[in-house]
Amino acid sequence: MILSIQYLYWLAGIILAITAIMTFADRQHPKRWTTGVFWALFSLVFLVGDLLPPAWVGVGVLVMAVIAGTGGVGLGKHGELPAEKRQASALRLKNKLFIPALAIPLVTVIGSVVVKDLHIGGLPLLDPKNTTFVSLGVGCLVSLALACWLTRDTPVQSMRESRRLTEALGWAMVLPQMLAMLGLLFNDAGVGKAVAHLTTAYINMDFRFVAVTVYVVGMALFTIIMGNGFAAFPVMTGGVGVPILVGQYDANPAVMAAIGMFSGYCGTLMTPMAANFNIVPAALLNLPDKNSVIKAQIPTALSLLAVNIMLLYILM
Amino acid sequence: MQTTVNLWPLIGVLVIVIGFVLRFNPMLVVALAALVTGFAAFMPFETILATIGEGFVKTRALPLIILLPLAVIGLLERHGLREHAQNWIAKIRTATVGRLLIFYLFVRELTAALGLTSLGGHPQMVRPLLAPMAEGAAENRYGKLPEKIRYKLLALCAATDNIGLFFGEDIFVAFGAIALMHTFLLGSNIDVEPLHIAVWGIPTAICAFIIHAIRLKRFNSQLERELGGKRLDADHTPIGRQE
């Protein structure tokens, strides 16, 4: 392939390294050294993470967790433009401001749908396993060029802005990856098997409705624990779905799978473990309560879970 | 009692639950849960460290989605993107918070169902565009929002993006989750057409839209009820107002 995801890792590593260096250089920063070390370690994961012995990376991850846990990741001062200047610029540039913002999703979609199968000289242009990520990377670069051109600002300023937002997000940016790591470790340690054992061994499923409820609610609960419906599906479907719903009650497996996965998604809406959907947006929108997105989603998720029980009971 | 299943790793789950409930720092809670789970599964300390490191490197692609758009979004915000998003929505007289978010939910779910999942997202769509527009639409009618309602509104913007994405993407045949379900069922000797799995997701997808749209409409009525009295002064708010 020509554009491999490896380039994006390097790009991310460089951006984070610049963030770390700017933090180290910021004498006014209240938590200059710990914050700098936090972002420097994170940048190393992208720059050389695959070359280091895994145990070293593990140590680095624990150090990052301790820095974050002791409140060591802080915010520096940033020279934001005053509100009047931003408003004046908004009135001057108008809809042109939308162009780079919309270019990111647009290029990503074009890349992952149209350019996906393009080969140049026998080599695929985009990393075939990571088309969406690579397209997103290209989209961000195209959009950055457009933004610099339209606003007559410099790439250096864009790095300052990137640092401003990175610091505003803080450890929330790292949390999704931590949780994904934990999911893999849970798998290795057999957490899924233990949960499936508990749900199937102690509940009497001689009633069709009970079995349906166990499957639907189990998918949601297991997703709440693991943070990911994909991890819950094999466990619950292997434990309850296939042997009991299909085997005992003759369910249509397509209906069971479709509604089962969606029940898992209801769980995703209710758990801090799905950090990239629930915690990161709260940080991005500067909400003081990091659980406010989850709270906004719970009524929809619970109603939909009840609907799913009825739908599966009727349709299967 | 004799079981072949080792239940000790569940202690890791317990650590997570207790940690989140007591609101310790999530990074610390997750790291602790990883260590505890490893010990409970009788892994040696070095193996635990290596498993953590390996898992962390393997999942490096995740933060890219958050990190990479920040430079552009930050630069555009410096030059007034959020202000312009508010000005723009102010020109649409009929725009209400409810209508805007229901429209976004509809488009997000429909495009995700067609496989265009990257047309939204929190760093590149919700923060720079959707949230300021929703805020603008509300301020345009009711003036400056009380803090509590403003936070609820912003949280609903993020929630709407998630719900549209989740219940749309899973009825797209070529989506990874469908492949995962198909492969897993094949492994249990059940052969289902991926298309059937996708089609049977449609009833839930429609219900998701209806339920969330009703909630958005009710939120809009709540705004109207609680803040509607202020409307008269808001009508004369100049477009070029400051935050």
Automatic annotation (TrEMBL), chain A:
The chain crosses the membrane at residues 6-25, 55-76, 97-115, 130-149, 169-187, 207-233, 254-274, 294-315. Signal peptide: none annotated. The keyword S-adenosyl-L-methionine does not apply. Keywords: Membrane, Transmembrane, Transmembrane helix. Pfam families: DUF979. The keyword Ribonucleoprotein does not apply. This is DUF979 domain-containing protein. The lineage of its organism: Bacteria, Pseudomonadati, Pseudomonadota, Gammaproteobacteria, Pseudomonadales.
UniProtKB/TrEMBL annotation, chain B:
Keywords: Membrane, Transmembrane, Transmembrane helix. Pfam families: DUF969. The keyword Transmembrane helix applies. InterPro entries: DUF969. The chain crosses the membrane at residues 7-24, 30-49, 61-81, 101-119, 153-185, 197-216. The keyword Membrane applies. It comes from the Bacteria. This is Membrane protein. It comes from Pseudomonas asuensis.
